[in-house]
Amino acid sequence: MKKKKNLFLFHASLLAVCRDGLYETELTALMRREDDENTLPLALWVSLYSQIKVFLRIVVTKDNKLQLVHAETLQVVRQRYLPKNDDVIKVHSLLGAFFLSQSNVDAHRSTINEVPPLVNRRALSEVAHHLAAACRWGDLSGLLTDLIFVELRCKVGQVHELLRDYDRLLGNNNS
Amino acid sequence: MTVFLVTTIHRTCINFKIKKTTTPENKAAHRYILVARIETMRRFVSSNVHVFRKHPMLVTQQALNQPDSSLAATAKSVLLARSSCYFQSHGESIATEEAAPVMTLLQQPEPVLSIAGTDDGSLVAAGLADVCAQTCLYLLLY
Predict the structure, then answer these.
(1) What is the pLDDT of residues B9-65, one digit of tens each?
(2) Hey, which bits of chain B come out as E strands?
(3) How far from each other are the two terminal CA atoms of chain B, in whole angstroms?
């Protein structure tokens, strides 16, 4: 019961902190219980999903995106589960680390003679936002000044989003 | 006794150095450097938006052409990392601004007798002494 409550807390926190929802595959990967597990077991996920689905809006895409449906729900989750700023930063840090690993920047560094790894468009667009929100300035500046990262974002058509990320970071640092 | 004293002084110096690196002044200096690097990169991207939107593969090339030496150095390291499977670099000649990069093609089992490149500079074909043709991506045609 306690484990389920923790999972619910974690699940709600992730959805409350993310920018515009999370895909089911991302949620199950983030909520894996141990390092040797790739995702949360399906039985647990189904049980958890059936409890929380009334609060969720499902954006129908090829891989359903889940968002908290009401602003009130978001407010309650923030008040109850993420009361301190440190708690929010921790969840952002977790999401940042997850998207950083998914963005595969290092895998693109020296792959001329192999089949290039897939470009994760979603991870590339989200990683900077979460690293900035987690105040991981070192990681963020390393990433934003990496030519491979710049090249990948240009490849997936995110040049203007990249410029917005620079502006956000420079704005935060100047303030 | 002398050895002990020297070791103690050495340790004190190391401790002092560690403490010194975490001072607020150093943090501010580090932050200043990071901000400067990001500003450089932002300027670079914003001045090349029209190029990068259509030709994202030219990011490294454009960085190499920048007057900013740190950006060009980063671009060189990216190119070297990418082409290390095909080329063996001759360090010093690459570092100089005037000289063209001098590199040796690797993975050639036999001596190369003839060579030809495509017009766009993306591929190079080499004819070997054992009557085999070998093609590879030619990245350093700058």
Answers:
(1) 444 444 444 444 556 667 677 777 778 888 888 999 998 888 888 888 888 888 888
(2) 87-89, 103-105, 112-117, 123-128, 133-137
(3) 62
Largest CA distance in chain A: 52
Does residue B139 surpass a pLDDT of 50? no
Torsion from C-alpha of B51, B57, B58, B61, nearest 10 degrees: 170
The minimum CA-CA distance between A14 and chain B, rounded to whole Å, is: 29
CB neighbourhood size of A109 (10 A) = 14
pLDDT tens digits, residue range A48-57? 888 888 888 7
Contacts of A10 (CB under 8 A, 6+ apart): A31
Is the separation of the CB atoms in A64 and A58 below 8 Å?
Answer: yes
Side chain identity at residue A130, one-letter code? H
Please name the helix (run of DSSP H) or strand (run of DSSP E) that holds residue B74, with its range, or none: helix B69-83
- Residue A46: pLDDT over 50: yes
Nearest neighbour of B59 by CB, restricted to A141, A150, A169: A150
ipTM attached to this prediction: 0.75
**Cα Rg of chain B, angstroms:** 23
Enumerate domains of chain A plus CATH numbers. 2-81 (1.10.10), 85-174 (no CATH)
Mutate to test the interface with B, among A147, A164, A170 (most CBs of B within 10 A): A147
Substitution target from B35, B68, B103, B139 for chain A, most A beta carbons within 10 A: B35
Phi first, then psi, for residue B114 (nearest 5°) are -145, 160
